[in-house]
Amino acid sequence: MSEPLRIGIAGLGTVGGSTARLLVTRENELSTKCDRPVRLVAACDLDRASDRGVDLSAYWVDDVMELAASDRIDVFVETIGGEGGIAYETVKAALGAGKHVVTANKAMLAKHGRELARLAEASGATLNFEAAVAGGIPVVKALREGLVGNTIRRVYGILNGTCNYILTRMEAEHLTFEECLAEAQRLGYAEADPTFDVEGFDTAHKTVLLTSLAFGTETAGDDIYVEGITRITLEDIEAAAELGYRIKLLGVAMRTDTGIEQRVHPTMVPQSSAIARIDGVLNAVAIDGDFVDEIVLVGPGAGGDATASAVVADIVDIARNTALPMFGRPAGELTPYKRAAMRAHEGGYYIHCLAYDRPGAFAAIAGRMADHGISLESIVQRHRAPSADGADREAARNAQPVTMITYDTTEAEVRTALEQIERDGHVAEPPRMIRIERL
Ligand code: HSE
Fold first, then answer.
1. Contacts of 187 (CB under 8 A, 6+ apart)
2. Does the beta carbon of 301 lie inside 6 Å of ligand 1?
3. DSSP 8-state assignment for residue 244
4. How many CB atoms lie within 10 A of CB 243?
5. Given the CA of residue 161, which atom of ligand 1 is nearest to it?
């Protein structure tokens, strides 16, 4: 056998703890598979008392910065988390010292991916990040290796289990967003502060990484359209179901004539599509390549063991010397990211208006759509009074929901039409819209 590969882990939380347990309990098996010893030699965390399912007393070190650049390790595993701070500092220190790095830190890579890819290349080190996108699903490997012969047209996915759990429960149990969020928190699927998940930022970080992998562009973490699920109502979900759709929070990376669309938003997807059938906390990533057409990978996007599975796969790649450039091409070959304007986005739209029940209101709304060349696939007046509070109650009593599905149009036309509909005064609240993804 060759020289051992020596691993140090920084951050022994859910993911780091499972990774340590996997490495310690499967050392022999992994070493056989790699034809060299693959060995945990150091672990660092402020909390030494928690039970990680394995005895780590032989591995503890105190100083994480010292560990990052230590001669005792070949691979620095960063499972601390956070966009900057100690995670970012230690990864830079490790790469600077020529250590390979394996990280699950999507926030850091979305923000600093371009710089870290260059740093890794300059020092001859490998920076692997399978665990940063869709947890246990090997999507980085699929894009960098399995589909390398393809020109990728679009990558999209359900990349956040918390949001998918909430949307699935809302539809299945006819519950509100708030009720499902509370249940997700009770079950430990959602954080006490769920902002990062439900406002779409976690999905955005993963989408940014998928964009760079798919299109060979520099990471552009600050240049992505993000809309979360907090404004999705049970009424939207039920209307979508009646129209043959389900609502999913999607991260989409897509090449267009004017640039790359990098967007996160609630999306109506046809009930017949593979992505529509992904329920609960599962993640799914669909990759559309010109030679393969579409493949869909489904699996657990979170959780200690599933994510540790991805971390260990990255370590094994390093042990086998099969490691690749971070985004599948040399850092110097990454092209600048050119964002396609969201207003130029083309697609179908679901639109919800709460229209006053009086002659001409319906016609005026449809007329505004026609003014903007928007053709309607369906328009339905629903005879259901929504619940409303306080001053809104009287207005809402005299209003009825109107839902429309448009044929393909542009976001600019839809937004302008909706602004005019609101100004015309036939609606009791600002109209809402949800984009439809053609799959
Ligand atoms: N919080 C994420 C989720 C997992 O709910 O899917 C980590 O990115």
1. none
2. yes
3. T
4. 17
5. 6
What is the C-alpha to C-alpha distance for residues 197 and 121, in angstroms, rounded to an integer? Answer: 32
Average pLDDT, 10 consecutive residues per value, the chain (439 residues): 92 97 98 98 97 96 98 98 96 98 98 97 97 97 98 98 97 96 92 93 98 97 97 94 95 95 97 96 98 97 96 98 94 96 95 91 93 94 59 66 95 97 95 95
**For ligand 1, is residue 197 a contact (CB within 6 Å)?**
yes
Place of tokens 């701070």: 85
Residue 207: CB within 6 Å of ligand 1? no
- Residue length, the chain? 439
206 is an active site residue: yes
- Asked if 218 and 235 touch (Cβ cutoff 8 Å), the reply is no
Angle at 86 between CA 84 and CA 87, to 5 degrees: 65
Q: Which ligand 1 atom is the nearest neighbour of the CA of 307?
A: 7
Q: Are 20 and 52 in contact (CB under 8 A)?
A: yes
Encoding tokens for residue 274? Answer: 């593979």
pLDDT at 323: 80
Does the C-beta of 8 come closer than 6 Å to ligand 1? no
* Beta-sheet pairing, 376-381 with 259-270: unpaired
Catalytic residue chosen out of the listed positions 106, 206, 248, 338: 206
pLDDT for residue 395: 55
Domains contained in the chain, CATH given: 5-132 (3.40.50.720), 139-299 (3.30.360.10), 344-436 (3.30.70.260)
Helix (H) or strand (E) holding 245: strand 245-256
DSSP bridge pairs for 158? 284
The verdict on the CB of residue 202 being under 6 Å from ligand 1 is: yes
Cβ density class 267-297: b for 16+ within 10 Å, e for less: bbbeeebebbebeebbbbbbbbbeeeeeebb
- Nearest ligand 1 atom to the CA of 196 is 1
- Please compute Rg for the chain using Cα positions: 24
Residue located nearest, by CA, to atom 2 of ligand 1? 160
